[in-house]
């Protein structure tokens, strides 16, 4: 072949007088003689033309360009909603990091970043709702998250229902096959894909529980209809290692598993997300209870709904492995594995849900529709409810202040600003309404609580570039 084709490593047709490749590229074919190529390279002033230009990224980092177009970049022209919404969310956090490390940017500018990408993603999803796929469900879940961040709550409410219906249509609430450990050669998808489907389904469950908030008519998904195991821990997921975990019910595994496939302790394979899902289920029951106090038993009775729920929290806490407690060691290890934000959310949710359970002792603050009448002989129980609510509000602030020291990104979950706001309200209400300010103990408690209140306000201000709700919480009287 000619010298140009050999340099390009393509097949040359050696057509006379010039090959087809050179003719197509408008190049002068050097011919097929053995010495012509050497002469061409040696002669000064000979015109040379590149067959392709390096891409901008390779020129910027001064590396050799292969000329191939990355797959994710090629997807930009295929109407990929998932790509658009990932870019939309990524734009916010890119500017947030830039604002924190390089040059401060206006909060509204950071918050508005990626809006056009998010709109493109939404347009693609709703242009054809009949196009139901795993990727479109993933995109819809992220669109819900995006809408909550920018305060588009009506859209988020509608999209949450779309996500649950997509999940039901795709049947991700069921295991893809009985071959959970991927031992059969006939398995059509990988262990990683199966685990991704489970995590996607549980994300839809969490979203539905957030939207429902204990109101049955707003809740679409029921735990008994989700017949998949809980997510495994991140290490197995990243290594694409299949494993058996428990289901929502403690100590239970999937019914169809063979006895020899079940490990001695399936809970060892469970990570933060699995325990968070069980906590979300507890929270649904708590919210359902506090919204139906008129039909509930007296809370001071040992068989009351409150006692059962309190036992549920103790049981949940007792099942946690040591590496999930909120301790300096856990903070360090979770930060190294990029899970510190998830750990902070787990414990904020735990303490906030206990606040919700015992808020029956603060009916004026939470505007309880049917408050419980506490008889005089139950004054100690009432004080116990108020004290427990206050202590858990303080613990929320301790977790948030500890997390924010490691970066604003640790507070990236959309619910964190609401948790910080409610924690502040409970502490202020307890200090101003439950205590006598003339007592020394009250003044000492106020002095100890003031740094926690300041930490909450600081965290809310740091969250303003991430959530519209954060600014509303800061400005709220």
UniProtKB/TrEMBL annotation:
SMART domains hit by this protein: Fungal_trans, GAL4
This protein's GO CC annotations: nucleus
GO-annotated molecular function: DNA binding; DNA-binding transcription factor activity, RNA polymerase II-specific; zinc ion binding
Localization per Swiss-Prot or TrEMBL: Nucleus
Record keyword Transmembrane present: no
Keywords from the UniProt entry: Metal-binding, Nucleus, Transcription, Transcription regulation
Pfam families: Fungal_trans, Zn_clus
Leader sequence segment: none
Protein name, entry field: Zn(2)-C6 fungal-type domain-containing protein
């Amino acid at each position: 072949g000619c010298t140009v084709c050999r340099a390009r490593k393509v097949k040359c047709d050696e057509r006379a007088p010039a090959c087809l490749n050179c003719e197509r590229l408008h190049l002068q074919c050097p011919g097929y003689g053995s010495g012509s190529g050497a002469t061409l390279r040696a002669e000064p002033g000979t015109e040379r033309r590149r067959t392709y230009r390096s891409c901008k990224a390779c020129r910027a980092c001064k590396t050799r360009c292969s000329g191939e177009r990355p797959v994710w970049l090629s997807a930009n022209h295929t109407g990929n909603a998932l790509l658009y919404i990932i870019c939309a969310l990524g734009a916010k956090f890119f500017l947030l990091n830039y604002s924190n490390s390089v040059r401060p940017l206006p909060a509204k500018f950071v918050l508005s970043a990626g809006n056009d990408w998010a709109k493109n993603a939404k347009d693609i999803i709703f242009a054809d709702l009949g196009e139901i796929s795993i990727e479109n469900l993933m995109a819809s879940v992220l669109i819900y998250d995006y809408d909550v961040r920018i305060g588009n709550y009506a859209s988020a409410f509608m999209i949450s229902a779309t996500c649950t219906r997509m999940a039901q249509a795709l049947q991700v609430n069921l295991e893809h096959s009985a071959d959970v450990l991927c031992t059969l050669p006939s398995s059509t998808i990988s262990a990683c894909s199966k685990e991704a489907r489970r995590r996607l389904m549980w994300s839809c469950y969490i979203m539905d529980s957030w939207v429902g908030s204990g109101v049955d008519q707003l809740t679409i998904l029921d735990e008994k209809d989700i017949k998949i195991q809980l997510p495994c821990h991140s290490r197995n997921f990243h290594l694409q290692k299949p494993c058996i975990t428990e289901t929502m019910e403690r100590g239970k595994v999937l019914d169809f598993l063979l006895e020899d496939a079940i490990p001695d302790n399936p809970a060892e394979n469970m990570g933060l997300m699995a325990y968070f899902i069980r906590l979300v289920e507890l929270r649904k029951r708590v919210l359902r209870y506090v919204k139906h106090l008129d039909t509930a038993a007296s809370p001071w009775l040992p068989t009351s709904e409150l006692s059962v729920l309190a036992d549920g929290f103790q049981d949940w806490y007792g099942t946690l492995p040591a590496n999930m407690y909120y301790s300096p060691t856990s903070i360090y290890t979770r930060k190294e594995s990029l899970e510190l934000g998830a750990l902070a959310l787990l414990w904020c949710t735990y303490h906030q849900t206990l606040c919700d359970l015992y808020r029956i002792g603060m009916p004026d603050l939470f505007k309880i529709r049917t408050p419980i009448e506490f008889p005089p002989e139950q004054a100690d129980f009432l004080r116990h409810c108020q004290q427990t609510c206050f202590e858990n509000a303080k613990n929320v602030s301790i977790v948030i202040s500890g997390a924010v020291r490691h970066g604003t990104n640790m507070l990236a979950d959309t619910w964190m600003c609401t948790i910080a706001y409610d924690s502040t309200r409970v502490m202020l209400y307890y200090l101003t309404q439950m205590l006598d300010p003339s007592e020394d103990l009250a003044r000492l408690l106020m002095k100890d609580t003031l740094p926690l209140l300041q930490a909450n306000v600081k965290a809310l201000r740091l969250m303003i570039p991430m959530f519209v709700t954060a600014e509303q919480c800061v400005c709220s009287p």
